[in-house]
Amino acid sequence: MTSVLGMMNPNLINGRNLHKGSSIFVKVEEIKKRGQWRFSIKEKSLKMPQATSSSTTEPKTTEFNTMTYEDKMLTNYVPVYVMLQLGVITNDNVLENEENLKKQLKKLKESQVDGVMVDVWWGIVESKGPKQYQWSAYRNLFAIVQSFGLKLQAIMSFHRCGGNIGDDVNIPIPKWVLEIGDSNPDIFYTNKSGNRNKECLSLSVDNLSLFRGRTAVEMYRDYMKSFRENMEDFISSGVIIDIEVGLGPAGELRYPSYSETQGWVFPGIGEFQCYDKYLRSDYEEEVRRIGHPEWKLPENAGEYNNVPEQTEFFEYSNGTYLKEEGKFFLSWYSRKLLLHGDQILDEANKVFLGCKLKIAAKVSGIHWWYKTESHAAELTAGYYNLKTRDGYRAIAKMMGRHHAILNFTCLEMKNTEQPVKAKSGPQELVQQVLSSGWREGIEVAGENALPRFDRNGYNQIILNARPNGINQDGKPRMFGFTYLRLSDKLLSEPNFSTFKTFLKRMHANQEYCSEPERYNHELFPLERSRNDESLEKFMVETEPVDPFPWLEETDMSIRPFESVLSLLQSTFLRKKS
């Protein structure tokens, strides 16, 4: 369905020319009737007298409406950011290829991108030793971003780069932390076979003073405090507008259940990651507390590349996940993840309290096996989500208490693009998670999971950014979108022309807007986290709720050959001039 509002000429309505200096303005009210859009046009002037039959009658006046067509369209504006290369700062803490980066940022700015996102790697900044932070390369990078008038989203990346889909560089966590792991490997996530995953620290050590007198959470807190102190000028000047807090592998709030370094291949179900001595001890204490000391951590959940029906735990009709023992384990496993996210976001909130920026956290889009009863791949990652149980509402509630944005992935994917054997449901998953966030009254942002350069991928993103299309209230609407990622391929033609058309559509066919308050994104000082509800209450609110309504297709799609024709036209005009 194509929205008339998205195509309407704001300067010509019913034959009347409504230029900016005119005293007549248009109030566009969209009304859905029989599936079609219609508009009422209200002509208003500044107290213009109306002719009457009696001189004793007061002249009729009408109110003056100052909301323009552009203002209304801006309520549908979704800012777009581009993720910089993973290795833009090298392992040696050097900004490499500075001149080439400037050329790329210049092209992005000319395309009307709103800003960029960058990983701020723990393994680079604190590599020399505890609290020996080195920020100079990142300050140099941020100054360059600022010089191009771009906004910046900074990720506190407490994980290793390398081993995840799309990773093309290797940046480990700090060497001195890895050395502690040499003598105590239980600081890392561990599967049932005893294999350690050194991508990030296990949530089991969040509150254990194993790191030269500090806990893991204290290390994360100190890192963020140092970042704020050293980047105060970029924060106060409004360059840094968003701090995404890393909460696990790939920076996501999840367990590293599907890691290519462990031999996982899509669409394997993955493995539970709770077999280090600390989590094992915690679970044993919990089952003793409830009077079931005989319950053990799962040994029947298969291996990384199994399918659900190959395992006793995820078996369709009588799997362990359906029994009391399995339900208790899954509740405990997902609860530990929620507590982990809650504690670190609370520290982030305290660190950036009063700053005019947003904090955010990312949830992974685990879409494979979504259309099975057990949702096995989600369960091994820590998302206790079933057809009969909403596993994302508690996460949205937890983020809401810290005023955090929920950032979700796989927005570009359609079900028909996935292999049938994976029983994927990316479209339904996106609808479920985004709706959970909106229902809890929090802001929701998103990313693409894999690089896309085609109109089909972009159109799916536009649809998910505005599920009900262009409308007067601009709701529901994603808070922002980050494209993964900057590359020569993105900037080459015809890819870049298609990307620029995508930007225009995300901006509701408006030019780049440098005043976020005009599209309701004004930044206010970050407020302190709320503690009015307990996490235990969040955990029991699992009743599935229907997602928000979604159009089948976006009302602002990129049409076939549109970008190519635009490229040809601009090339012709350049040659002519």
Task: For the structure shown, list the relevant keywords.
577 residues, alpha/beta, 18 helices, 32% helix, globular
Summarize the structure.
By secondary structure, this protein is an alpha/beta fold. It has helices spanning 4-7, 69-74, 98-110, 122-125, 136-147, 175-183, 216-230, 232-236, 277-289, 324-351, 376-381, 393-401, 426-439, 455-465, 488-491, 495-506, 535-540, 562-576; strands at residues 12-13, 16-17, 29-33, 36-40, 80-83, 115-121, 151-157, 188-190, 196-201, 240-245, 358-363, 404-408, 444-447, 480-483. The strands form 4 sheets. Strands 5-6-7-10-11-12-13-14 form an 8-stranded parallel barrel, surrounded by 4 helices. The chain has a two-stranded antiparallel ribbon with strand order 1-2. Strands 3-4 form a two-stranded antiparallel ribbon.
Give the % helix. 25-40%
End-to-end separation: 38 Å
Counted by DSSP, the helix tally is 18
Sheet with most strands: strand arrangement: 5-6-7-10-11-12-13-14
Mean pLDDT comes to 89
How many strand segments? 14
- The value of Rg in angstroms is 26 Å
Q: Which sheet architecture does the biggest sheet show? A: 8 strands, parallel, barrel
Shape: globular
SS strand fraction: 5-15%
Low-confidence region ranges: 1-64
